[in-house]
Predict the structure of HK97 family phage prohead protease.
Amino acid sequence: MSKTILLPPMLRDALVRAESFDEESNTVDVVFTTGATVRRVSWREGEFDEELIVTPDAVRLDRLNTGAPFLDTHDGWSLRTVLGSVVKDSARIANGVGTAKILLTRRQEAEGTIRDIRDGIINNISVGYRTHRVEIAERDGQVPLHRAIDWEPYEISAVPIPADPGAHFRAGGDEHVTLQPCEFISRDAGALTRAARAQIEMRNRRLGL
């Protein structure tokens, strides 16, 4: 069974690798997703766990790879908040991790922020993304598991404090928020695909679990 509802954009914590800063090219590498499961609360769905499936088939990289913005705290309403952009064709998915290279601005008014990123003082970033298809697994005695099997990152931001895993843009009372349709597919917990189980096992091995 499936149904389509409108969803707002979502946020996830991510990581900037300050040690990867290249002086000559003025670039730095980021990890924008590891697909970790986080607890969320929605007025539509109640409490649930969300897992981002991190495979080439599940993640739409077109917007990142055409030069998506690197912003100051998700502020996309002023050019002054643009701290850089994703280097074209640098975003990729491999071994259950999403990475990208960021070209930093050389504008004088952003110099202090860029220096803090280079020095590792600002090392928290957050990725904004939209979900297009979600597989729901009902679990006995637990909250449902929402597996995003088709999702699209569209911007990366430097933030002072990592985004709350349950945070998302407000769906009402904000004319700037755009809702988009997302297909929800109901499954039994036992119906998780073999590929999904393999991904979970691979991530656990990588984390030493």
About this structure: The longest strand covers residues 124-138. The chain has a mean pLDDT of 85. The radius of gyration is 18 Å. DSSP finds three helices and twelve strands in the chain.
